[in-house]
């Protein structure tokens, strides 16, 4: 019976270039300046990463006013609004900007379109740090669109040029459906110069789509507040998986998930270290899922340079 139990391992999975850069930024700041180093919000949305950095001396805070004056403060990968940058300056904090460069690109687009007197329809999830940071660039010129169904309730100023932008970690398919509905209501809606959804989010969704066609069960390693991890569960279910679950750790996997299951698909969100996937694979092997086939849909070789404050000084 166990002979044909198998695992389909999605690739790409796990850390993207922006997450890698942000985590290394905190590690380097601790090395360079010593503990404590403060971080506004979670550096990336992953429980394991945050707890590991806490053990090394990082202190995570919700707001800038919790940081002692003159301390080192890292801005998370999700980015911050100009108001947060100003508040940090007012407290004489030594800031290190670990915002993902792809998020920074969307911030710049928002600023430019607002300057050119566009009204921006921003597709994203209310309350997410990335959304708060980006909308803070031009709050008077932006309307948040939370989902395709929210399009019916969108109101825009009269006689303004319209353009859409999006959070980088959304479902590609759902975002395009939102844009389609927006364009039905606002035919003059313009596209941004390039798609805002990040390469890593797209690549992980494409890989799990392929896996889900052949896997009855998909397990996504990732945290509950990780937008891209949650989307991977949804994409798996929309593309053929009979069941899909998200776990932070292999220990959260439940016996009843495996009744009648011969093929398990595995992937991980863009803020998940590979060691957590390795632990899950080991547990699945113990359950008799012996053969691991990697399903690769793209190669990723992008690397972002560290924040300027942490780069070695040239002699």
Describe the structure.
About 35% of the residues lie in helices and about 20% in strands. The protein is α/β, with parallel strands linked by helices. It has a 5-stranded parallel β-sheet, sandwiched between helices. Strands 3-2-4-5 form a 4-stranded parallel β-sheet, with helices on both faces. The chain has a 3-stranded parallel β-sheet with strand order 7-6-8. Helix 2 (about 45-55) links the parallel strand 2 (about 35-40) and strand 3 (about 60). Helix 4 (about 100-115) runs parallel beside helix 5 (about 130-135) and helix 7 (about 200-210) runs parallel beside helix 8 (about 225-240). The longest helix has 17 residues, at about 15-35.
Topology:
Layout: E1 6-11, H1 17-33, E2 37-40, H2 47-55, E3 58-61, E4 72-75, H3 82-90, E5 94-97, H4 101-115, E6 118-123, H5 129-135, E7 142-145, E8 161-166, H6 172-185, H7 199-212, E9 217-221, H8 227-238, E10 243-247, E11 263-268, H9 274-286, E12 291-296
Parallel strand pairs: 1-11, 1-12, 2-3, 2-4, 4-5, 6-7, 6-8, 9-10, 9-11
Helix content: 25-40%
What gap, in angstroms, lies between the N and C termini? 65 Å
Number of helices: 9
Strand order of the largest sheet: 10-9-11-1-12
Overall mean pLDDT stands at 96
Q: What string gives the helices and strands in order?
A: EHEHEEHEHEHEEHHEHEEHE
**Proportion in β-strands:** 15-25%
Counting DSSP E segments of at least 2 residues, the number of strands comes to 12
Regarding quaternary structure, what we see is single chain
Radius of gyration: 21 Å
């Amino acid at each position: 019976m166990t002979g044909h139990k198998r695992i389909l391992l999605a690739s790409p999975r796990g850390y993207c270039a922006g997450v890698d850069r942000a985590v290394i930024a905190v590690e380097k700041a601790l090395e360079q300046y010593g503990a404590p180093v403060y971080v506004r919000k979670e550096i990336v949305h992953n429980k394991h990463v945050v707890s590991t950095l806490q053990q090394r001396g990082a202190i995570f805070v919700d707001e800038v006013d919790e940081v002692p004056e003159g301390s080192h403060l890292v801005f998370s990968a999700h980015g911050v609004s100009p108001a947060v940058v100003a508040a940090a300056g007012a407290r004489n904090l030594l800031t290190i900007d670990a915002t993902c460069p792809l998020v920074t690109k969307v911030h710049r687009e928002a600023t430019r379109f607002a300057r050119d007197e566009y009204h921006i329809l921003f597709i994203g999830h209310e309350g997410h740090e990335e959304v708060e940071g980006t909308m803070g660039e031009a709050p008077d010129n932006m309307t948040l669109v939370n989902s395709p169904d929210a399009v019916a309730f969108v109101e825009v100023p009269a006689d303004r040029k319209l353009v859409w932008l999006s959070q980088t970690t959304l479902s590609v398919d759902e975002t395009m459906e939102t844009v389609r509905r927006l364009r039905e209501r606002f035919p003059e809606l313009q596209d941004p110069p390039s798609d805002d959804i990040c390469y890593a989010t797209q690549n992980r969704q494409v890989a799990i789509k392929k896996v889900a066609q052949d896997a009855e069960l998909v397990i996504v390693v990732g945290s509950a507040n990780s937008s891209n991890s949650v989307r991977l569960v949804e994409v798996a279910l929309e593309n053929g998986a009979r069941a899909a679950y998200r776990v932070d750790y292999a220990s959260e996997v439940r016996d009843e998930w495996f009744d009648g299951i011969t093929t398990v698909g595995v992937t991980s969100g863009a803020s998940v270290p590979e060691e957590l996937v390795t632990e899950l694979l080991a547990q699945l092997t113990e359950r008799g899922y012996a053969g691991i086939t990697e399903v690769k849909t793209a190669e990723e070789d992008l690397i972002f340079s560290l924040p300027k404050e942490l780069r070695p000084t040239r002699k």
